[in-house]
Amino acid sequence: MVMQDKIICLPKRVQPSQNHSSISNVSQAVASTTPLPPPKPSPTNPATVEMKGLKTDLDLQQYSFINQMCYERALHWYAKYFPYLVLIHTLVFMLCSNFWFKFPGSSSKIEHFISILGKCFDSPWTTRALSEVSGEDSEEKDNRKNNMSRSNTIQSGPEGSLVNAQSLKSIPEKFVVDKSTAGALDKKEGEQAKALFEKVKKFRLHVEEGDILYAMYVRQTVLKVIKFLIIIAYNSALVSKVQFTVDCNVDIQDMTGYKNFSCNHTMAHLFSKLSFCYLCFVSIYGLTCLYTLYWLFYRSLREYSFEYVRQETGIDDIPDVKNDFAFMLHMIDQYDPLYSKRFAVFLSEVSENKLKQLNLNNEWTPDKLRQKLQTNAHNRLELPLIMLSGLPDTVFEITELQSLKLEIIKNVMIPATIAQLDNLQELSLHQCSVKIHSAALSFLKENLKVLSVKFDDMRELPPWMYGLRNLEELYLVGSLSHDISKNVTLESLRDLKSLKILSIKSNVSKIPQAVVDVSSHLQKMCIHNDGTKLVMLNNLKKMTNLTELELVHCDLERIPHAVFSLLSLQELDLKENNLKSIEEIVSFQHLRKLTVLKLWHNSITYIPEHIKKLTSLERLAFSHNKIEVLPSHLFLCNKIRYLDLSYNDIRFIPPEIGVLQSLQYFSITCNKVESLPDELYFCKKLKTLKIGKNSLSVLSPKIGNLLFLSYLDVKGNHFEILPPELGDCRALKRAGLVVEDALFETLPSDVREQMKAE
C-alpha cells in the first residue's frame, strides 16, 4: 500500500466569475483546455476516427508533483494514515494482552503454575486419591448432595453474595477409575508425588504473598477498554472523511499553470469499507474487554473457595486461597474446572499424609522393622522408631511386639489395626503429637499397662491417656508448671483406677491435685524437678499406700515431715537436693517397712547417731556429700546389705563395720581413707568392694576371706604390691578387678592366670 499511487489529480476548470482580476489568464487557460467538438466518424472509414480530450500541456513530472502536493495538503489525515493507525492499534492491543506473559515478575509465576498444574493433573496420586473418594458409600454421597443443595439454596438468596467469590461449581464429570490401577503406586511415583506436594506448598507460600498478576491483568484490561473507547469515538467521527473525490487548491500556478485540481483517492472506497469492518471488529473486541472488566470487579478474584470441591470429594481440609494464587485458579476455571479439582488434591494435608503413609509403608517393611527389635529395661520386646515422617502400618503386622517406642514423630495416627498386637503392653511417646482411632482407644484401655510421654508443650499430652483404666505405670517428662498442673485435664487422672506408679519429671512447685486424686491406690511416686523448689508437701500424708517415693532435685533443705506419716513406705530417695542437716532422721524409726534410704548428692556434713534406730534399713546411700566422720552407731543397722559412702571427706572407717554380716556392697571411692580395719574382712558376704581413689598404701592379706568377692576397685591408691591371697577370691576375675596394669603384674603368675581364665 505504501508503494502504490495514493492519489491521482487533474487540473480543474474554473468559472470566469470566480476570478475577475485575471480574466485574461483564465480565458487563455479555458481556450487552451476547452475540448474541440469531436469529429463525426465517417461511416465509410471508421479507422480514421481519433478520440481527443482536454489538452493540459503538463508532463509526467508535473503530474507527480501535483499528486504529491495534493496528497499532503488536501487529503484528510485520517484517509492518509488509516492503515498505519490500524497497525499501531493492533500492536498496542497485542502488547496489552501479552505483556504479563513477558514481564519477569509475572511470567515466572504463570509458567511455574502451568508446569505444576500439568504435573498435578497427570499424577497417578491424583487418580488414586479421587478413586478413594469415588468408592464411598452411596448413602454418604446422597447426604453430601443434600447438604450441597441446601447450601446452594441458602446462597442463592439475596444475601448469598459469597457465590461470587467461589470457584466455578459446574463440575458434572465423574471419575471412572480402575481401582486396581489406582491402588498400584510404586515407590518412584510415590516419591514424585511427595516432591510435587513440596512444590505446591512452596509455590503457594510464594504466590499468595502478592497480587502482581491480578493488578497487572486489571490494568491491562482497563487500558484496552480505554483504547477501545478512543478508537470507537474518533473512528466514528472521521470515517466520513474518507472520500473518493477530493478538491485540491494549492498555489503552484507558477509551476504548473493551474491552481485548482480535482483528485481521485484511489484507496478511498477500500478504506471506507475497511474502516467500517475495523469498527465492527474493534467493537466486538471492546465488548469482550468490557465483559472481562465486569468479571474482574464483580467477582472477588483475589479469593478462591474450594467449598464445592470439599463437598464433592469429601476432602474437608482443602484450604481456600487468596491473591495471585486464587486469581490463577479462577483463570484456569474459565478453561476447565477439572484442573482446579485435581490440583486441590495437592493442597490437602490429609491427602499428603496418606501419601506419606504409603511411602512409609513401602520403606519400612515388616522384615526391616523386625531387625530393630530389642529388649528394654522392663524386659519387654521393644520396637524403637525415631524421627520418622509417621507411623508405618506395617508395625501392626509384628504381632510379637510388647513395647512400642515413638520418638520425634509428628502427626502420629494410631489406627484400629493396633488391636492385632495382642502382646502390646507398653507405649512410649517422646515429643510426638498423637491422634487415635476410637477402636484403637478401646484396645489400649484394656491392654496398655505402661505409658511414657515426653513433651515440650502441654498440647502434646494426649487427652485420651486419662481414660486408660487398666494403666498401671505413667511417666510424664516435660514442662508442667504449677499453674498448668491445676487445670482440668490433669484432674482426670482420677479415672486411672489401676495406676500404681506415677513419675513426673518437670518443674512443679507443689504436688499437683491430680496426683492426690490417685493417692489411694498409688504405690510409687517420683517427682524429678529441674531445681524448682518443691513446697507444700502436706498432700503426701494422703498417700497411705505409697511404698516408694523419689523427690529428686527439688531444692529441699530438710526432710519433709509429711514423709514420716507414710507408714507403708519402703524406699525413699532424696537425691540432688540441698540437705545439710538430717537430725529429723530419727522419725524414720516409725517407718517399720523402710529398707532403702538414699540421701546422696546433697550437702550433708555428718550422720547423726539416731540412725542406729533405723534397724530395718538394708540399702543406705550417702555418696556425694561432705561427710568427714562416720559414727560407729551407723553400723548398728545390722541388716544393711548395700552401703555407699563414696565421694565424701571420710578419713577413718570404724572397726564396728564388721558387725554388718549381711553387707554385700561397700563403696568408699574418692575419700581420704588411709587404712582399712581388719574387721571389714569379717563381712564374708561382700561381693563388691570399691576402695579406689583414696590414700591406702597396704591391702591386707585377709582380703582372701572374701570368698564371694566378684568386683574389686583399688585403682588410684598408693599400693606397691597386691597380696597373693587375692587368689583365694575364686569369684574375682580380671574383668572385675580394677587396678593399674603394673600393679596387677605384682601378683603371682598362677593367680593372674586364674583371674584371666573364663
UniProtKB/TrEMBL annotation:
Q: Keywords on this record? A: Cell membrane, Disulfide bond, Ion channel, Ion transport, Leucine-rich repeat, Membrane, Repeat, Transmembrane, Transmembrane helix, Transport
Q: Which Gene3D superfamilies match?
A: Ribonuclease Inhibitor
Where in this chain does the record put each LRRC8 pannexin-like TM region domain?
A: 2-293
Stored Pfam families: LRR_8, Pannexin_like
The annotated topology with respect to the bilayer is:
Multi-pass membrane protein
Annotated region (Disordered) at 132-160
From the Swiss-Prot or TrEMBL record, state where the protein is found. Answer: Cell membrane
Q: Which SUPFAM superfamilies match?
A: L domain-like
**Highest taxon in the source lineage:** Eukaryota
Establish whether keyword RNA-binding is in the entry.
no
Indicate whether Membrane appears among the record's keywords: yes
Residue ranges annotated as compositionally biased, kind Polar residues, are 146-160
Transmembrane feature ranges: 81-101, 276-297
Q: Which reaction does it catalyse?
A: iodide(out) = iodide(in); chloride(in) = chloride(out); taurine(out) = taurine(in)
Q: Which family does it belong to?
A: Belongs to the LRRC8 family.
Mind telling me what this protein is named? Answer: LRRC8 pannexin-like TM region domain-containing protein
Q: In which organism is this protein found?
A: Felis catus
Lineage start:
Eukaryota, Metazoa, Chordata, Craniata, Vertebrata
User: Which gene holds the coding sequence for this protein?
Assistant: LRRC8A
